[in-house]
Amino acid sequence: MEFTFVSGDLALDLAGTVQHRRDDRRDLLTDPGGLARWSVAAGLLTDPPEMSAGDLAAAVALREAIYRSATAVLNGAPPAAADRDLINLRAAAAPPVPRLTAGGAVHRDGDAAAVLAAAARAAVDLLAAASAPGDDADGTGRGVLKQCQADPCTRLYLDTSRRRTRRWCDMRQCGNRAKAAAFRARHAPGHDA
């Protein structure tokens, strides 16, 4: 199981742990250990903590609330009240705690609630900025919320390209596939140039 972090935002990377939501859905968080590994891979914790089935269920519920909320905002609607309430509830917990080790490194400690708090806080910031009027409304250069245009990808991402014209969540995965398919279509027998 390989996690990818190409969305440009922690909340969107959590939402991206489901691939191909429309067809051939693939969930990367299928057990508590997967959530623990994602927490480390995302840079939230230094060591994988013990996670329970309840922790996994809470993470999946938050992930889906984030995805539905971001999709609603993309379509010009506010997040549903239940999703907003869940995100706010999870954001109220304490996030992971960084501590400086004797060797000068940062060690990040926390449990499932801390991991979900970090993702929920990122979602609050993301959704507030994406809901504001105008392009890149928060003025931070954060980017514009978009959905990957490659089929069958359903990943959401922040377009931080200079002109905000990025079409794919990741050039190496979706961009190359889309460009290769377009090339094959252009060079197929019977295609008029």
UniProtKB/TrEMBL annotation:
Pfam families, per the entry: ABATE, zf-CGNR
Domain (Zinc finger CGNR): residue spans on this chain: 145-187
InterPro entries in alphabetical order: ABATE (IPR010852), ABATE_dom_sf (IPR023286), Znf_CGNR (IPR021005)
Annotated PANTHER family: BLL6575 PROTEIN
Record's protein name: Zinc finger CGNR domain-containing protein
Organism: Actinomadura verrucosospora
